[in-house]
TrEMBL record:
The lineage of its organism: Bacteria, Pseudomonadati, Pseudomonadota, Gammaproteobacteria, Pseudomonadales. InterPro entries: LysR-type_TF, LysR_HTH_N, LysR_subst-bd, WH-like_DNA-bd_sf, WH_DNA-bd_sf. CDD domains: PBP2_DntR_like_1. Belongs to the LysR transcriptional regulatory family. Residues 4-61 form the HTH lysR-type domain. Keywords: DNA-binding, Transcription, Transcription regulation. This is LysR family transcriptional regulator.
Amino acid sequence: MHIPDMNLLVALNVLLEEGSVVGAARRMNLSAPAMSRTLTRIRETLNDPILVRSGRGLVPTPRALELREQVRGVVELAHGVFTQGQDSDLSQLDRTFSIRAKDVFFGVYGVALRRKMALEMPNAALRVVPEGFTDDEALSEGRIDLAIGSTLPSSADIKVQHLFTCPFVGLAREGHPIFDQPITPQRFAAYDHISVSRRGRARGPIDAVLAQMALERRVLFTTPTFYSAIFALADSELILPLMPQLLLKALEPLGLRLRAFELPILVKPEEISQAWHPRLDNDHAHRWLRRTLKTLCDNATA
């Protein structure tokens, strides 16, 4: 009886997670040509193209989508078999953790987390996955290990732990005329705003609050990340109205001439949590990751 090559299953799992030959090659420490040859072997073995060209990227075939969760499960099971009994030796763990979170979170906690990993899990790597618009099955299907944010999958089988509460402040350049007088809702709305939205939305909760006061603001710049918004403030009359307060300390080493201000309207803070699938509950390394992140967040907000 022919026994399938386990390495092909591992490679298939990585290819389906990455959706890219180059990305899969990087994760498996292979050259792109070697990864392409592996993909060819997988296609021949399964008699299916598995990944097909779509625009500039690759998308999975229906057959690949059917296999994705099964392949992930087999690889995780094999990983568990070969690492059983090694729970106490995180220093030898060779593993990549895929975490879905906003850039703000890793801008604040990323350095401290990497330092902890370098000490206790030096061979482990982090892969930050951008938030998707409708990707609620990523945890259940094993394509990410952890999700961090204010909007998390609502499935009953997903476990959630609160990390911290994140209030907002406003941000503008030093010397901005908004600081010349007390910042009232009227003056706040009078200056041109920046909107941070991964969906490209210029309107949000602020507009509803202002509308109740018969006020309206003008949004002249919409961007998907806070970092691009922050750099847009320099030498401009724009203001950033919803800046996560926790990011202020991370900006200090950059030496940017920016100044925060208390919002003159009531905006609810965000509740930030981490979520994971129950199959990872007793995974020693995953428990270390969750515990470490929780400790970092607790210490930062203490």
